């Protein structure tokens, strides 16, 4: 039984739960030219503009002959072939509802300018921003091209590893947006520093993360560490620690502190409770809770598989972990929730 579970879950084309898993898979499956699966990094002209971009969802191959089937293979192996409503879309709808329809919290100037979305995934957030603010140029970046074929004319997508040295024009963006990158970044401190260089004076950085562990609103906001849902969360955190791709950026005020350390001022931290299930009386939160259950349920297998790869558990233990966690999602009488955290800060006009 365990063998069948693992075999099916590892089939090429299976949806990986979120872009944070792409980071784990990048760590677990090193990509080198020798292996024939090298990612093609963007190159830039003297004016700072990318010469290799994904225009309207398609890869422009005029500037890179080496972008071949290897990219498509990685896309299939990691995060594509969404035959169901995928977790990118579910999480985007859930977060948008949670934020009362706002696409960002930072008070940016929306007249003109450029926005950079790091780890854009399927590009849903970037596309929505481009639709709502047609005078802004929105650039989304990710390791793998997952964006749709039809996108707004003021949006574009670039294949890029955000942990490499950024070569964007300095002071070029009104907002650098980061979302759900926990478990995919080795050094958030370095990421924030590079964002600081890329943001224009008076521009903003904004980082949104879902913050685990799972808590109970009926049990003094606590839930035992041995609870099946927390056992699943702890496996992810342990795998992140072991692989060097931390999930702990949301803990102990680290996002806020590191954003401030990078040089940003007027830093604001906001938190929300994200219900699991439709137990809230508020209609919007009730819908958020329904999305939350679906998000977690669809994410569990793929996330657990990544943890299994790092921790070397074997299929039986992974299957038991997922089965117990999914059962708890459906049958837990407590009013469960986790938190969401958003931190944003402004680059001062006279940056040091």
TrEMBL record:
InterPro entries membership:
SAM-dependent_MTases_sf
What are the GO MF terms of this UniProt record?
Answer: methyltransferase activity
In which domain of life is the source organism classified? Eukaryota
- Family of the protein in this entry: Belongs to the methyltransferase superfamily. LaeA methyltransferase family.
Q: What is this protein called?
A: Methyltransferase
């Amino acid at each position: 039984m365990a063998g069948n579970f693992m075999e099916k879950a590892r089939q090429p084309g299976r949806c990986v739960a979120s872009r944070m898993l792409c980071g784990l898979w990048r760590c677990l499956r090193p990509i080198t030219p020798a292996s024939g699966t090298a990612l093609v990094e963007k190159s830039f002209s003297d004016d700072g503009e990318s010469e290799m971009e994904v225009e309207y969802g398609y890869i422009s191959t005029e500037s890179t002959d080496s972008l071949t089937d290897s990219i498509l293979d990685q896309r299939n192996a990691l995060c594509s072939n969404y035959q169901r409503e995928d977790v990118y879309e579910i999480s985007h709808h859930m977060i948008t509802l949670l934020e009362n329809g706002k696409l960002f919290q930072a008070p940016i100037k929306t007249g003109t300018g450029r926005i950079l979305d790091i780890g854009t995934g399927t590009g849903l957030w970037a596309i929505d921003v481009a639709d709502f603010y047609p005078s802004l140029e929105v650039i989304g970046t990710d390791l793998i091209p997952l964006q749709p074929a039809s996108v707004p004319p003021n949006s574009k997508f670039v294949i890029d590893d955000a942990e490499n040295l950024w070569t964007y024009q300095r002071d070029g963006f009104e907002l650098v947006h980061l979302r759900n990158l926990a478990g995919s970044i080795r050094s958030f401190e370095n990421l924030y520093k590079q964002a600081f260089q890329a943001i224009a004076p008076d521009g903003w950085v904004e980082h949104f993360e879902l913050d685990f562990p799972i808590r109970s609103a009926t049990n003094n906001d606590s839930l035992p560490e041995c609870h099946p849902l927390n056992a699943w969360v702890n496996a992810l955190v342990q795998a992140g620690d072991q692989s060097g791709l931390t999930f702990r950026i949301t803990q102990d005020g680290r996002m806020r502190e590191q954003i401030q350390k990078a040089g940003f001022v007027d830093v604001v931290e906001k938190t929300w409770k994200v219900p699991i299930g439709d137990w809230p009386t508020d209609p919007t939160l009730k819908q958020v809770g329904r999305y939350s259950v679906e998000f977690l349920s669809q994410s569990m297998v793929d996330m657990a598989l990544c943890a299994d790869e790092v921790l070397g558990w074997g299929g039986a233990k992974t299957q038991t972990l997922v089965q117990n966690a999914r059962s708890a999602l459906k049958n837990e009488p407590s009013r469960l929730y986790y938190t969401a955290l958003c931190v944003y800060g402004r680059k001062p006009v006279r940056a040091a």
